[in-house]
Write a structure and sequence with these properties.
This protein is an all-alpha fold and 254 residues long. 67% of the residues lie in helices and 0% in strands.
C-alpha cells in the first residue's frame, strides 16, 4: 500500500487542488464485500427464542424445575449468540437500527440463558419464586423497553412492519417490567402475549426478507416507507474523495 502510494505521488501531475482531486479520484480503488442483510438471522433468532420463552411465561408449557434447564442453552445460542452476531454484522451493513436492536436483545438473551441455567441448577431463585429476583429482572426490562421504544420510532421511517414489531415488543417489555417489579401475575401473562405477537411479526419480517432475496421480488409486503429527501449541508466538502450519493450500505434517500 505504501509503495503504491509513493509511486502515485511521483506520478501525480502538478497543478492546483482540482488536478490533485481528479488524480486521486481516478486512482483510488475501494473493494466491497457484499453481505446478506444481518437482520434475516437476527429476526429468526429473536422470533424462535421469544416464542419459546413467551409461551412458557403464558403458561402454555413447562414447570419451574426442568424447563429453565431446557430453555437456557437455546435462549443463549439462538436468541443470544445468533442475534448478537447479527447486531455486530449490522455495523458492517451500516444499519443503525438493526445494530442497536439486535445488539441489545442479543446481549439480553445471552444473559437470560446464563440466568436460566443457574435457576435450573438451583444456584439462583426464579422470578416466580422470589419477588426480589423478579424485581431485579424487571428493572432490566425497563432498559430494554426504553431502547425498543426508540427503535420503534426509528423504524417508522423505514418499514411499517418493523415499526409494529418493535412497538409491540416494547409494549410487552414495558408490561413485563411492571408485572415483575409489582409482582402482578396477570400483567406478566398479558406481557407474554405481547411478546408472542412480536415473535410472529418477527417471523413474518424474516420470511419476507428471505423470500425477496430468493425470488428477487417482493412476495410479502413490509410496508416500506418512501425514501426521505437527501441530506444537505451548508458547509461544502473540501473536494473529499468519496462515493457519490447511494453508496453501498446506505438506503436510498438517506
Amino acid at each position: 500500500m505504501t509503495r503504491e502510494m509513493n509511486m502515485a505521488d511521483r506520478a501525480m501531475p502538478a497543478g492546483g487542488d482540482g488536478a490533485e482531486y481528479s488524480f486521486w479520484r481516478e486512482h483510488t480503488h475501494i473493494n466491497l464485500s457484499p453481505v446478506a442483510a444481518p437482520s434475516i438471522l437476527g429476526l429468526a433468532g429473536f422470533a424462535v427464542s421469544t416464542f419459546m420463552v413467551a409461551a412458557n411465561l403464558a403458561g402454555w408449557f413447562g414447570d419451574s424445575t426442568t424447563t429453565p434447564l431446557l430453555l437456557a442453552p437455546f435462549a443463549f445460542a439462538f436468541g443470544g449468540v445468533a442475534q448478537f452476531l447479527a447486531g455486530m454484522w449490522s455495523y458492517r451493513a451500516r444499519d443503525a437500527l438493526a445494530t442497536v436492536v439486535h445488539g441489545a436483545w442479543g446481549a439480553f438473551w445471552l444473559g437470560y440463558g446464563v440466568y436460566q441455567l443457574f435457576v435450573g441448577l438451583g444456584g439462583l431463585p426464579s422470578t416466580t419464586a422470589s419477588p426480589v429476583a423478579a424485581a431485579a429482572i424487571g428493572f432490566w426490562f425497563i432498559g430494554l423497553a426504553a431502547i425498543t421504544w426508540t427503535g420503534a420510532l426509528a423504524a417508522l421511517a423505514e418499514s411499517l412492519v418493523l415499526c409494529a414489531l418493535l412497538a409491540i415488543l416494547a409494549a410487552g417489555a414495558t408490561l413485563l417490567a411492571i408485572g415483575l417489579i409489582g409482582d402482578v401475575g396477570v400483567v406478566r401473562t398479558i406481557a407474554a402475549y405481547f411478546l408472542l405477537a412480536s415473535a410472529v411479526l418477527a417471523w413474518y419480517a424474516c420470511s419476507a426478507m428471505v423470500l425477496e432475496a430468493a425470488h428477487h421480488r417482493v412476495l410479502l409486503p413490509m410496508g416500506l416507507r418512501a425514501p426521505r429527501p437527501a441530506r444537505t449541508t451548508t458547509v461544502p466538502l473540501h473536494q473529499a474523495i468519496q462515493f457519490d450519493h447511494g453508496e453501498p450500505g446506505i438506503k436510498a434517500g438517506q
